[in-house]
Design goal:
It contains ten helices and twelve strands. The chain is an alpha/beta fold. The chain has two domains: 149 residues, 3-Layer(aba) Sandwich (Oxidized Rhodanese, domain 1), CATH 3.40.250; 117 residues, 3-Layer(aba) Sandwich (Oxidized Rhodanese, domain 1), CATH 3.40.250. The strands form three sheets. Strands 1-5-4-2-3 form a five-stranded parallel beta sheet. A five-stranded parallel beta sheet has the order 6-12-11-7-8. The protein has a two-stranded antiparallel sheet with strand order 9-10. α4 links the parallel β4 and β5.
Amino acid sequence: MHWTSLVDADALSVALGDPSLRLVDARFVMLNAEPDAGHRAYAESHLPGAVYADLNRDLSDLSKVGEGRHPLPDSDAFARTLGGWGITPAHQVVVYDAGDGSMAAARLWWMLKLLGHARVAVLDGGIAAWRARGLPETHETSAHAPVAAYPARFDTGRIVTSDQVLQRLDEDSGWLVDARAAERFRGDVEPIDAIAGHVPGAINRPFALNLREGHFKPADELREELSALLGDRHPADTVLMCGSGVTACHLLLAFEHAGLHGARVYAGSWSGWISDPSRPVARGG
């Protein structure tokens, strides 16, 4: 196993039971649901051997102020969480959620990449694709023997801050890509955050455009689309954002799947940007 971006259900099913495999269920429901809806879905049925990762508790530190709705946890805290799940640098990790990877499989994929973990992938199509193939599930709580905290720290050079975005606002448009739905980007509606709109100069690439029927588009098709979006820019000069730094990771996964490496994520994203009222806001197309 050497899966580093996406893996399909059939390939994963062959590897079930391999001692070097670690599965993580990252199902999360953002709106109009009980806070523990993802965990309850996990308790009802999940892939054999999978542990559960909660976006709010395990993949964020909600005590941090001014860094958006889903601030990254400190490296040491996340390293201890991984150790509790029995994950080491030697493991092939596969993360899945309910379907397209946006809530919140791609987030955990990105966080492991920040630690330098190469062999981590998202199950393309999530548990929905798994079920469509009639593959096995269980309701039994899964756990691996805890190990030492993961021996790495986040590569902070791959995490973009609000100050870094602010410093680039004078650049030509195109370097900052917002993965939210078009109506939220324009500011027509805002169902979550206190202020509607987008960062001035940002361009919009809704993460849903990465998908077809719940699966990522083929790599060559995504490469053509995303290259057109980049124009003359190198992916490494590109910053990806969304509402709180979660679906931006889905867009990053699409870039990586397409072979366009090096884009970075603005972790605080829109909710972090508007935490300071002095920062400018744009609306419209």
